[in-house]
Amino acid sequence: MRGLVPRSPAHGGSSRRGRGTSPHTTGLSRRADVAAAGVAIALGAGYAWVLTHWFLVQIAWRDVGLTLGGAERVLNGQVPFRDFFSVSGPGLYWTLAAAFGAFGAGTWTLLASVWVVGGALGLLAWGVARTLMGPLAALAVASATVGLTLPWWVAPSHHWWTALWLAAAAWAAARAVASEAGPSHRLLALGGASAGVAALGVPHTAALTALALSATVAALPSPECRVLSPELPPLRTQPAALRTRCGRAALVLGAAAAPVGVAGLVLMLQGAWDAALYDLFTFPREQYAPAHAGIRPFADLVLVPIAFSVDTPRKVLAMGLAFAAAALAVPIFALAGLRSWRGMRGQAKPSRQSTVHSSQPAGALSTVNCRLSTQDRRARAALVVCAAGLAQYLGALYHPTVLHFTFASVLLPSAATFAAGALLPPRWLRPLALATALLIGLVCTPFGELWLIGSGQTVVLPTRRGDLPVGTSADLDRYARHQAAVLETLQAASEPGDGLVGYPVLSLYNFVLALPNPTHFDGLLSGYNSRAQFALATADLERARPRWVLMDVEDAAGLSLEAGPRASADGFEQALARDYAERLRAGNLVLLERKGSP
Predict the structure, then answer these.
(1) In sequence order, what DSSP letters do the residues of 534-578 get, joined into one string?
(2) What string of H, E and C letters represents the secondary structure of 297-348?
(3) Nearest partner of 395 among 211, 520, 576, 561, judged by Cα
(4) What is the DSSP string of 264-304?
């Protein structure tokens, strides 16, 4: 675990490597790196594979049902925003729809997409950590990353879409600035483009990260400026350095704007531009923010463990780790950033000429620039990782729950491990590293995750799209039976052309039963959606006359994210009471059938 200690030339490390040497191959051979990366991929995919035994419990959650509903609509030719409402970007809809088109819109494709996310998370977590430490330490950090993030939401989500692409952006930017030959323009462009693709999921978080990356890579000193050359006065070299820095920032921002521009052009040609602006920017400001104003920051202290149904002691342990990560994230990133800043303080002294000119603004800036040595490439990479991580946490403040901070935590273990090298005495570091590795081996593995969650039986629910496994225990058994009853009734009584509306948010059933939703909304929440949106949904209901409506009476009664009046839902619920009759009641799930249906 010697790789846990980032070593700079000032502390005995050597910086004399070839200009083309990659930081990814430092320490051990490329073969060892490839092997460690493969293990990280297998570990992340293994987590996801184990946790998909509890999959249906997770995709019954609102956001994932909305994701599946949107992807199916795109697969059937609908256009995001124009034909259906969405507060997330179109990236995940397009990706899942392409996967469904290529491999079939079945549960196997759905589950495989989760396994791919797990493997990609493991690889990116390892890649980011590898820019800061050795391959074995990076593998331990990747294990901790997937073990502390995936369990909270192992399902298709626009949050995971954004987190993965932003991790790719941080990796590319960190590798770019860690090059001894100077920042790689190709990697900087790749980092910016990755942030732009992430903006097709959660736009504001991706925009903050792109700005943070561009500012950081622009602020870093140039590798050729270790000491000012007497032949090149500071007043002449400073404008060139400024142009170089501005060029880096422009490259990152320009590459980030490219995917957003392409997506915007596609939406404009499809006639969805105005609707996209409303859904992505106006609605969050006018409806989303007020609806979540009354939610306490750590409300999912109850929601997350109940959804997983873990035993009480393990529930406390798991949530304690999540709370600790959320509470300590900003101090950890700040400490790691300070550690990297100190690591860039070079030993070279500025020339006499720079000292003479230091009273002038350009000369003073040149002197500071050259006092920041570029010898410690890992310190430069760490500064980029910390800037990206802080930006992602700032992006989660719009709805500051543990769950949302979890999506922003992909870079946190790497920063924490890097910062530990400055806090812990060397004689403590090795025993602590071994103890941490042992803990990760026992808990943060697919087998350890089975122990953490519990060994409840698995119930398989047959659907038209394939079988879905549901992990059950005393808490979940009743809920699983209710879902099974609804699925059995609908599969026996419905026809392929029947429409199904889930209210308030039950669009999962549209996917697994292959029944379309004829309204513009895969979810409607009173106090969240506007009066105009409920009026449009009511008009859709009366126009399309779908045969089935599945209603969660507890959710519709106000146990959802509500901060506003329920009056907005009155017209919609009156139309349900007038035109539909109860066909089945299973717990809080009520199946309604349109009156007069055959």
Answers:
(1) HHHHHHHHHHH--SEEEEEHHHHTT-SS--S-GGGGHHHHHHHHH
(2) CCCHHHHHHHHHCCCHHHHHHHHHHHHHHHHHHHHHHHHHHHHHHHHCECCC
(3) 211
(4) HHHHHHTT-HHHHHIIIIIHIIIIIHHHTTTS-TTTHHHHH
Tokens of 234: 């500071």
Strands laid side by side in the 548-552 sheet: 500-503, 548-552, 589-594, 580-586
Distance CA 65, CA 272 (A): 22
> Of 27, 199, 47, 208, whose CA–CA distance to 125 is shortest?
47
Q: What is the pTM of this model?
A: 0.83
Q: Which residue type sits at 582? A: E
Residue 204 CA neighbour count, 13 Å, CB half: 15
The per-residue pLDDT for range 469-528, each reduced to its tens digit, is: 765 555 556 777 788 889 899 999 998 889 999 998 888 899 989 999 999 999 888 878
Do the strands 500-503 and 548-552 form a parallel or antiparallel pair, or are they unpaired?
A: parallel
pLDDT in tens, 332-385: 888 888 888 777 765 444 444 444 444 444 444 444 444 444 457 888 899 999
